[in-house]
Specification:
heterodimer, A: about 140 residues, mainly alpha, about 0% strand, B: about 290 residues, 4-stranded mixed beta sheet, about 65% helix, about 5% strand
Chain lengths: ~140, ~290
């Protein structure tokens, strides 16, 4: 296709091939269905707490895979030159610190409150919660 | 293309051309989206911080279990799955619009843009229903030893721990007139608040069937603010995306892009629209799945 912009050094050949779009659609739908499957599995089955956390971790990884397909295929970032990919991806790595630090912070709030505010602890938890626990289920 | 072979010798940073091999507008759209990703990220992470600081957090399967027209049937995650698929499909139709644009196929762009707009409006309609349902729903909760009926708002949360038996009957005995009217109304929708308000406490208590009532403690207040704040911010992005897409549709039909010789504007609108879908992946993850 003929662009009028002079900034662009070379253009992508427009393909008539839509199979990549359909493939990505199917991948996104299947991953969503698997995520829902895990959601229902956790809802209908009583798992030990560590297994619940493990399944949630798997769901997070599946969601990251979805994000990869949307950005890489639908937003065509995967087709751009490396300079472009890096200028988007490198700043986003700030999220690694961002998520870790603030979840850690939240966990620290909970631990401190439970330690120093016994009324809060007794009124919000009906049975002993392991120290490593972050959220609790089935309090009744 | 012949140029492709010469790519390795390109001096990207020598000036005179885009070091990213993209036109200015598209690079700026990417940077805007990246900054927007940090805004959404900050919102979701603050939600995570508060959630991690609580001993108890409501189970999303319990909170989101309604479906339009299904009454009180327990259908966890069903409606939000529908919303997710609507957004995925509208993302696909957007890719197809961009694809048609690459081929300067005006008819194709118009067709797929219309479907994308329809998808966006459908999503917003679903969200409107979901919010209305959650705000106006009636849940019996126990607060300060009394029973009350509340919905999910930014100030109250009805999704605390289940309570049964004597605790509920004791609380009912202590409940004041106003609370009794709400409880009676919850179980007898054919009677108005005015009719019920005129009745005595004993009459009202006679109308309240404790065995049929699902009572909980009130849950973490922060839930509502985060839920409505973040899904609302996302919904606002969907709304502005629909407006942008409508403008693109009008411009396509007025042959603006046909005259320019390219459909790059559709690609930029497409980037924004895909970003809205991308954010939903994480909203869906944080509020509904885990």
């Amino acid at each position: 296709m003929e662009h009028t912009t002079s900034e662009v050094s070379f253009h992508h050949e427009p393909t008539s091939d839509k199979s990549r779009i359909w493939k990505t659609t199917i991948i996104l739908s299947v991953i969503t269905l698997i995520e829902l499957g895990f959601g229902f599995l956790m809802y209908f089955t009583e798992f030990p707490h560590w297994l619940d956390l493990f399944i949630k971790g798997v769901i997070v990884i599946l969601s990251l895979a979805k994000a990869f397909y949307i950005v890489s295929i639908f937003m065509h970032l995967g087709d751009e030159i490396k300079n472009m990919i890096m200028t988007i991806i490198v700043p986003l790595s700030l999220f690694i610190w961002f998520i870790a630090a603030f979840l850690w912070d939240g966990n620290s709030f909970r631990t401190l409150r439970n330690r120093y505010d016994t009324y809060y602890k007794e009124s919000s938890q009906k049975k002993d919660i392991p120290k490593t626990d972050t959220t609790t289920h089935n309090l009744d | 293309m012949a140029h492709v072979a010469a790519v390795k010798e390109q001096k990207w940073w020598a000036g005179g051309k885009s070091p990213f091999n993209l036109e200015y507008g598209k690079v700026m759209m990417w940077y805007f989206l990246m900054s927007d990703a940090f805004t959404f990220g900050a919102f979701l992470i603050s939600y995570g911080t508060i959630r991690f600081s609580q001993n108890y957090w409501p189970d999303p399967n319990v909170v989101f279990n309604a479906f339009p027209g299904a009454g009180h049937a327990n259908l966890p995650l069903a409606f939000v799955s529908l919303m997710t698929f609507i957004l995925i499909i509208s993302s696909v139709t957007m890719v197809l619009a961009v694809h048609a644009g690459h081929h300067n196929d005006k008819k194709g762009v118009v067709k797929w843009m219309i479907w994308t707009i329809v998808g966006g409006i459908a999503f917003l309609a679903c969200q409107a229903w979901e919010w209305t349902h959650m705000i106006t729903a009636e849940h019996a909760v126990i607060a300060d030893g009394q029973l009350d009926v509340i919905g999910q708002t930014v100030r109250v949360n009805p999704w605390g721990v289940d309570v049964h038996g004597a605790v509920v009957t004791d609380a009912l005995a202590k409940t004041q007139h106003e609370g009794l009217v709400k409880l009676a109304h919850m179980q007898n929708h054919d009677m108005s608040f005015k009719q019920l308000g005129a009745m005595t406490d004993t009459q009202l208590k006679g109308m309240i069937n404790v065995a049929d009532m699902h009572v909980r403690e009130s849950g973490p207040v922060a839930f509502g603010g985060f839920f409505y704040g973040i899904t609302g911010f996302h919904g606002f992005h969907v709304l502005s995306g629909v407006v942008i897409n409508i403008i693109m549709l009008i411009m396509t039909q007025k042959n603006v892009f046909e005259r320019k010789g390219h459909y790059l504007m559709i690609e930029k609108a497409g980037l924004y629209w895909h970003f809205v879908d991308l954010v939903w992946v994480f909203v869906f993850l944080c509020f509904y799945l885990i």
